[in-house]
Specification:
alpha/beta, Spore Coat Polysaccharide Biosynthesis Protein SpsA, Chain A, 7-stranded mixed sheet, 12 helices, about 50% helix
């Protein structure tokens, strides 16, 4: 059996895995319709942990305070900032009775650890239902809180939302960041839809305070600098307690990184927690990523070798059709339709970038959240 034949059989297996993932795991969210659940407005505490975010708070906090919601407080947590963050928070508190301020001093044991600051903010909140977002985020509508809170129930104590990034014209990096964001959302929404939630994003996430304290907060991974969102959700989420919310009114929007270096540093922090997920999630996510990588490596190799190019092109076409269908439905729901036609190119750049990040993280670990 020649090398080309072995590669072809391997390619068939890889395409089979990819088609299975897109057709089974990921398509479950792709075809799901957004549901609007507007219920009685329960008391909500919004928690925003900020480190050196003076300008973002000045610009974005008014949009948080302007929510069309009858009963909510905003807990602002200053995480040892050295810019004007504390002053901006103090000014807002003086003019808004529903703001609570937590000033976190430098603590050597927890320096650079957002989880410590978040824990103090959670303890200071007065309501049992908590909504988390970041200082650089804005809600997509005045109904943001209404849509998120409508997904809480006696059974559902976690709500996973979507944190989008704003669009920038003529920027390949912006498209790559948004493509990665959609693909991540496609996965965590799909897994939750299938009853196996594994992560959420801190830009748009909600859960009950009772759930936090019953799990002893972030204690099991407090020494890990990242993971206040995904590691916590990976621990506590299950088939029955997790809901997903992806109506366009429920989105938050953030400003994306503007340089590859800044984005790579951000992704290094995010990816560093994946090795601490439950084993079943590690296996499923790793299998999908490795099959993506091998699809490109083996597919290109077979075309270069000239092995039965009609069969190879057919397999490539089958896989791309499945990807476009699944990604296309998702991108339309998440208002990212400009990415659909570029999906194969963006995927190639993304998986090579992720490979370099994995290697970099093996050599050294990112140390601080800011």
């Amino acid at each position: 059996m020649t090398l080309s034949v072995i590669l072809f059989y391997a390619f068939c297996a890889v395409v089979g895995i990819q088609v299975f993932y897109y057709g089974t795991f990921l398509f479950s969210f792709g075809v799901k319709r957004a549901e609007t659940r507007l219920k009685k407005q329960i008391p909500i505490s919004i928690i925003i942990c900020a480190k050196n975010e003076a300008e973002n708070l000045k610009n974005n906090l008014p949009l948080i305070l302007n929510q069309d919601y009858s009963n909510f407080e905003v807990v602002l947590v200053n995480d040892s900032s050295f810019d004007d963050t504390l002053e901006i928070m103090t000014d807002f508190k003086a003019n808004n009775s529903n703001i609570k301020l937590v000033d976190v001093k430098v603590n050597e044991a927890f320096w650079g650890n957002k989880k410590y600051a978040l824990t103090l903010g959670i303890k200071a909140s007065k309501n049992d239902f908590l909504v988390f977002t970041d200082a650089d985020c804005i809600p997509n509508s005045t109904k943001w809180l209404t849509h998120l809170s409508g997904n809480f129930s006696n059974e559902k104590s976690i709500v996973l939302g979507y944190g989008a990034y704003s669009k920038k014209k003529f920027s390949f990096l912006n498209k790559l960041i948004r493509f990665e964001t959609v693909m991540t959302a496609l996965q965590y929404f799909s897994y939750a839809q299938l009853g196996s939630p594994y992560m959420g994003v801190g830009r748009n996430l909600a859960y009950r305070k009772e759930l936090f304290f019953n799990n002893c907060g972030f204690n099991n991974h407090m020494t890990i600098k990242s993971g206040d969102d995904d590691l916590f959700i990976n621990e506590v989420a299950n088939t029955s307690n997790t809901s997903i919310c992806f109506t366009k009114e429920s989105f938050t929007i953030s400003e994306p990184k503007t340089t590859f270096k800044a984005w790579i540093l951000q992704k290094r922090r995010h990816i560093s927690t994946a090795s601490l997920y439950k084993l079943k999630h590690q296996f499923l996510l790793a299998t999908f990523y490795i099959s993506q990588l091998l699809f490109w490596i083996i597919g290109i190799s077979l075309l270069v070798l000239g092995f039965s190019w009609q069969l190879v092109i057919s397999l490539i076409g089958l896989r791309f059709v499945m990807q476009w269908l699944c990604f296309g439905f998702t991108a339309k729901k998440l208002e990212e339709t400009d990415l659909i036609i570029l999906a194969p190119i963006l995927e190639l750049f993304l998986i090579t970038t992720q490979l370099s990040i994995f290697i970099a993280n093996l050599i050294s670990k990112p140390k601080h959240w800011k």
